Amino acid sequence: MDNAAFAKVAAVDPVWTAICDAAHDMARGEPILASLLHATILSQPRLENALSYHLARMLATTEAPAILIRQTLEEALLADPEIGNAARADIVAVYERDPACRSHLDPFLWFKGFHALQTHRVAHWLLTHGRRGMALFLQSRSSAIYGVDIHPAARIGRGIFIDHATGVVIGETAVVEDGVSMLHGVTLGGTGKETGDRHPKIRRGVLIGAGAKILGNIEVGARAKVASGSVVLQAVPAGCTVAGVPAKVVGCVDCEEPALEMNQGI
Q1: What is the pLDDT of the chain when averaged over all its residues?
Q2: What is the extent of the structural domain holding 124?
Q3: Who has the most CB within 10 Å: 13, 70, 85, 181?
Q4: How far apart are CA 145 and CA 229, in angstroms?
Q5: Which residues face 201 on adjacent strands?
């Protein structure tokens, strides 16, 4: 790619450009990873192609090989450009909020919260297009590989950061709006065997601490903060901090965007 073509790509897709730049640097510094980086990123024309390759390689089984999984992923990514756009927003969210993240390449290659979320986005598309079996297959594989169990029907916005991610469970009728941050061990679950709309609604910009359990068809208002280890059984007002078992309001958030600040103090 000549300089003019590269500049054009960089202007159109700065996230993909940043990933490719970091991949070039890593390949020079870690020759043992050069083949992985070339196959996954440097030989791919777009982020969507790289994402389908990378996820398919991890999600494949003997009976469902990577080449067929990739075809399914690419079908969804091509049919719904919002999946790729949301992936870009998620990468930026991780890069901006996680002090352990050094480049846009890090979440793409290594962070299972990002991988599980993108797998869910495809599974959700499959479910809404009548392919329930394949959607559940991806959910099952994601749970087994990444330790993150997100029902394909759950509705999740963009710019989501799931830090560490192990043990995260998001139920069938849950809603997670844009800009939410959550840590490992979070559950957005039901309260028993009730049917219908039975899972939490997490509004924009909420921060959910590690191990928090939010149960039932309740709303956590925009820019609220849920302290680590809390069990939330009642609605949380916007802009409030809740803590405890069961959780109670302990004050107002100490910043305008807690999900961006990632300050878990109460």
Answers
A1: 95
A2: 1-148
A3: 181
A4: 24
A5: 175, 219
Q: Tell me, what amino acid is at 97?
A: R
- Within this chain, do residues 143 and 171 fall inside the same structural domain, yes or no? no
Q: Beta 247-252 vs 240-244: how paired, if at all?
A: antiparallel
pLDDT digits (tens, 9 = 90+) for 173-216: 999 999 999 999 999 999 988 899 999 999 999 999 999 999 99
**Phi, psi values for residue 155, rounded to 5°:** -105, 120
The token pair at 109 is 């290659």
Contacts of residue 99, defined as CB under 8 A and 6 or more positions apart, other chains included, come to: none
Contact 212, 229 (CB under 8 A): yes
The residue among 148, 166, 187 that closes a domain is 148
Main-chain phi, psi angles of 121, to 5 degrees: -60, -40
Pairing of strands 225-226, 181-182: unpaired
- State which of 133, 148, 163 marks the end of a domain: 148
| Residue appearing with tokens 């809603």 | 175
